Amino acid sequence: MKSKEPGLAGRLVTFIRNLLFDPSLLTFLGFGCILVETVLNVVIVEKVKYTEIDWMAYMSEVEGFLNGTHDYTQLKGGTGPLVYPAGFVYFFSGLYYLTDKGQNIRLAQYIFGFFYALFYGLVVSVMARTKAVPPFILLFFTFASYRIHSIFALRLFNDPVAMLFLYLSLAFLLEKRWLLGCAIFSLAVSIKMNVMLFAPGLAFILLAETGFLWTCFYIGICGIIQLLLGLPFLMENPMGYVKMSFDLSRQFFFKWTVNYRFLPEEIFHSRYFHISLLALHISLLIALFVLRWRKLPRPLTPRSILLILMSSNFIGIACARSLHYQFYVWYYHSLPALLFSTRLPVPLVMLILGCVELCWNTYPSTVLSSSVLQACHVIGAIALLAPPRQVRPVEVKDKGC
């Protein structure tokens, strides 16, 4: 007997199942999500009240530069001195002019909404290229990301701008276009220093794929870009520029911490605690190298490149001295790819993602929310150090630049 052809309802169910779970259809679903995101951002800008946090401080900082001040120690805003590298100054100077000296907040929100659409498109491109997540995760990105939408369209932070450049860099690195990837990576660092958390992974990838001499060349390109961007400020007050824009010893306020609310405040500010976290950070990176990175087959696949970079960043975030709410964008879109690469069962992966989302949306943070967040980080770090899921490799040829 001939097997019965599935009816319309059966074909529809099969199509929806494939659309949600078949990685080859991720781009198709991603296009729809980008359209939804565009509409969603317009609704957010029009209907949700804007909250001033750092935008006017950014505008005051770049206004000093535009008025001729090149001594970094003299560039200040309402929240204190300028603490970001030179790329931030140039980028937000452009926004200063586009938004009538920062006064046209609504236009600034729409510009950041446009940034979010570009960013989301890059995320979809990266995930589709690596097949690192099932497509239904895009729905999670779109409909469960209150904090992320807020960071872009309602707060106008520089963190999403840095991550926009980072994902653009990642798109080139996945294609092994090392020169462009590294150059854009350096631009991302010049917006905000958190991008340096990806640097250990990038250094390993370059060494594994191009060798020592070419790695030195690409790192040199990154350094030259930083030097050229900072040149006006280095010529005026070199020590002031380096100290203000690349200060790793900056103290954070306990009242804003998302991840260490459960600690006594004196321990949170303790230098010994900070040193311990740095030691743990270095130890976990070494463990990642020994247990995971060096065992990856050569040449590295796009998926391997993605997971190396994102695991490097995740370890840095898990060991951070403090996390503020805008820092969520540093790893929100990479968490599913990292967790799905481990042997954790899918229900546990979804539970962790849900708990992390709830913790970042708890304001102000509580002892419970920060404890649960750090517990999720610990589980994620342990899972990343264990043997990964087996996947079919997809190779890509080295394109050089």
List the helices and strands and how they pair.
Layout (H helix, E strand, L loop, with lengths): L7 H14 L4 H22 L7 H12 L9 E2 L2 E2 L4 H13 L6 H26 L5 H8 L2 H9 L4 H16 L3 H14 L7 H38 L1 H8 L19 H4 L2 H21 L10 H17 L16 H6 L5 H15 L6 H19 L16
Antiparallel strand pairs: 1-2
Helix pairs in contact: 2-5, 2-6, 3-4, 4-9, 5-7, 5-8, 8-9, 9-10, 10-11, 10-14, 13-14, 14-17, 16-17
Biggest sheet character? 2 strands, antiparallel
Order of helices and strands: HHHEEHHHHHHHHHHHHHH
Q: Which strand order spans the largest sheet, edge to edge or round the barrel?
A: 1-2
Number of strands: 2
Class computed from helices, strands and strand pairing: mainly alpha
Walk me through this protein's architecture:
The protein is mostly helical and 401 residues long. It contains 17 helices and two strands. It has helices spanning 8-21, 26-47, 55-66, 86-98, 105-130, 136-143, 146-154, 159-174, 178-191, 199-236, 238-245, 265-268, 271-291, 302-318, 335-340, 346-360, 367-385; strands at residues 76-77, 80-81. It has a two-stranded antiparallel ribbon. β1 and β2 (80-81) form a beta hairpin. α8 (159-174) runs antiparallel to α9 (178-191). It is globular, with a radius of gyration of 22 Å. The termini are far apart. The model is unreliable at 392-396 (pLDDT under 50).
